[in-house]
Amino acid sequence: MVRDQGAFKLHNPWPRIGWGTAAAIIVISFVLGFPVLGRYRPNDPPLDLWSAICRGLGITSDTRPAAESRPALRTPTQIAWTSSTLDQIAAGDTQHGGFIGMNCSACHGQGGVSPSSLIPTIAGMDPAAIYKQLDDYRSGKRLWGVMGAMAKALSAQDSADVAAYFAAQPGGLPTLSGNRVPESGRSLRQADPARRLVFAGDPQRGVPPCSACHGPGGFKLGAPALQGQHSAYIERQLGAFAQGMRQNDIFGQMRAIAKQLTADEMQVLAAYYGTRASAPEPGGVASR
Amino acid sequence: MQNSSRLALYHYWVAFAAFLPAMVLGAWQMLMRSPLPAPLDDSNAYYTSVTLHGTAMAYVVTTFFAMGFGYAVTATSLRRPVRGVTAAWIGFVICLIGTVMAAVIVLSGRATVLYTFYPPLLGSAWYYFGVLLLVGGSMIWVALMIYNMAAWKRDNPGQPVPLPMFAITATALLWAWAASGVILELLGVVLPRVLGLTTQIDAALGRTLFSVTLHAIVYFWLMPAYIAFYTLVPQAAGGRLYSDTMGRLTFIMFLVFSLPVGMHHLFADPEHGAGVKFLQSFLTFFVALPTLLTVFSICASLEIAGRARGGRGLLGWIAALPWKEPMVLAVALSLVMLGFGGFGGLINMSYAMNSMIHNTSWVTAHFHLIFGGAVVIMYFAIAYEMWPRITGKPLRSKALARWQLWLWFAGMMIATIPWHLTGLMGQPRRVAIFDYNDPFVARMGPLVIISVIGGMILLVSAILLIVILVRSQLGEKHLATPLRYALAVNPPRYVPASLNGFAMWNAILVVLMVVAYGYPIGQFFILKSSVSAYEVTRQSIGAGVR
């Protein structure tokens, strides 16, 4: 019964079985894995033999790591609050500005106090805010047909001059001082939703208080005062920010905030700021 | 013989000493990732715990258990003392030092890299050195197993090597092959970066090398259970092994087919082509063969035993089996879990189906069911069988042992079945904290809670195991009957050389490995790198460690 004494002699049964099975498995798996199944792709026509083998080995025309997609750079505005910009605004010539401003009075009213509810009052508005909007209209960052055409006719120096002129006009918006206004009812427990949003915001939704930038009591460069502005105009701008139709807020903060507000809240906020012009609270706002 | 016994016993002690704390960590992890409140609610601690749990269970418990089992099998199946006992003790000490090193570093929070330590995750060099010592120390055991088998063959020319010895040598060879991947990864990829010799780390090469280890190591864990299936179960059931040749073929097939298949862990990786992945997926299917052979063989052996004990009819032999024997109960419970886990495994290894469950809890549930369930329950049964024979102190109560096995089975099923389901629902693995308020995650909440209950039952069962072993250890000494292995129905008088040694099978394995891994590893050197290497800038170790 001496059989199969050599494990490597192929005339013995077990070496034949072992090597034969291994060879069969290798051949079958190669044929299936490379030329047969490797050809077919889910949504594209089958590959030729050579491409299928290369694909099986992981060699394709594109073996580099996927390039990161680079979205086009979009900036909300071209204005940057550099010292040269601020110097230019501060050096605005009111006399020349008054001359240019005659073009504006047809819509924005005599001396910048607008008679129309959808056109903002610009008398007394911070010159930097006016300058920035004119620049945004000129560069197409804020879109409105009439204003775009008007702004394109102005140079940067003209913008600074006209901004200085309207900022100096009386009877419009209050000057924002940045001084804190001592006022009761600034808490989150305030019942009136408009006052709550204006003075306390809504931290749970990431909404800061409006007054922090737009007053009363707060001031941020480039943000206009809102007290005395037309309610309908404010409401329309909040809607435009919320829907992304207006996109010239530098850090997207107005778009972020307006998206969080309900239509009712926009209305009461607009009404709150709009009516404050006619009936300012006693001792509330530092008036010019 | 006395020295070999003490050798086995010390290995078992270390294995079970690491097992219990790792169980506690596992139970805490289940609690942590569930909607229930967990003590020490900290996600960093979670990952540290996962690292420790994985390292302990996957490297320490299994390696020490397999080594101890190997020495015991060598001494009892060859019926002569283990050759090279001094080397064995040196290996034991090296492994122990490695274990302590790794555990201390992980506990100090300096190697939270999970037990797979996939780059570019990097930990302290001492952790990797600890793992290297543990794996390297076990190579002494590998050498001793081969040496003992070869020495016995030289002394008994023409005689068939006893099946237990043949199988444990297959296990040792399998472990040597498997460990080559992780050793190469540590020495060639990870440590050079950790020690600051390079600035880049090729994560893809590291993962590929680790995949050589990652599947075969599972079969290394599995082998002691299969050896028990073939050589201890028929004896405990009071019957005979259905076929000795089938046993040899099974262990040969495990050796050959569990290695060139690891890439089914990398189906979602970009560094390998679809053809190479398919090839290894195809090869993986052959791993099911030895398992199916074994299920057939064991059922046949149990039927022989049942009929010998007077069982009649189509299924009457099942009732006639000695169910009071822990070994017989364990094999039945193990086969049930092997069935469920095996079907899950078929999904994991199928190239297309894998994408449904890749990196989900399904995978974690799968390996807990198949390793923690089907395999570890056999470790328990082996301990109940061998512990009394080594110490001469029998178990105080076989009923308590049966309770422990039933609890383990119930706990594992309750823990892993819902765990599989959450995987199908898309729950990712290796995540510490889930936001159960999220509607997508919320529907997994109840299933995860059921899973936690299973985990707690497992913890109770693990404590019970230690209680049983300690009670036996503290008990009185009786004269123990020596361990006897099952005889085959037709005991082999002559075995062909190919089934009495591993030379040819190792040669076939070399060919298969070159086919399966030659190009996937070679491409990193031919094409420089298929994906760009990570620049790892994070300095993760202190200057003192260097």
List the helices and strands and how they pair.
The complex is a heterodimer of chains A (288) and B (546).
Chain A: H1 13-36, H2 49-57, H3 83-90, H4 94-101, H5 105-108, H6 127-138, H7 145-152, H8 156-167, H9 193-199, H10 211-214, H11 231-242, H12 253-260, H13 263-275
Chain B: H1 2-32, H2 43-78, H3 85-107, H4 125-155, H5 163-194, E1 200-201, H6 203-231, H7 233-236, H8 244-257, H9 274-285, H10 288-308, H11 316-319, H12 326-349, H13 354-357, H14 361-391, H15 398-424, H16 439-442, H17 445-474, H18 503-526, E2 534-535
Antiparallel strand pairs in B: 1-2
Helix pairs in contact in B: 1-2, 1-3, 1-14, 1-17, 2-3, 2-4, 2-5, 2-6, 3-4, 4-5, 5-6, 5-8, 6-8, 6-14, 6-18, 8-10, 8-18, 12-14, 12-15, 14-15, 14-17, 15-17
Could you give a quick summary of the protein structure above?
Chain A is mainly alpha-helical. Chain A is built from 13 helices and no strands.
Descriptive notes:
The complex is a heterodimer of chains A (288) and B (546). Helices cover 45% and strands 0% of the residues of chain A. Chain A is mostly helical. Residues 277-288 of chain A have low confidence and may be disordered. Chain B has 18 helices and two strands. Chain B has a two-stranded antiparallel sheet with strand order 1-2. The two termini of chain B are 44 Å apart. The model of chain B is unreliable at 536-546 (pLDDT under 50). Chain A binds chain B through residues 1, 3-8, 12-15, 18-19, 22, 25-26, 28-30, 32-34, 37-38, 52-53, 55-59, 63-65, and chain B through 256, 271-276, 278-279, 282-283, 286, 494, 496-499, 501, 503-505, 507-508, 511-512, 515, 519, 523, 527, 530-532.
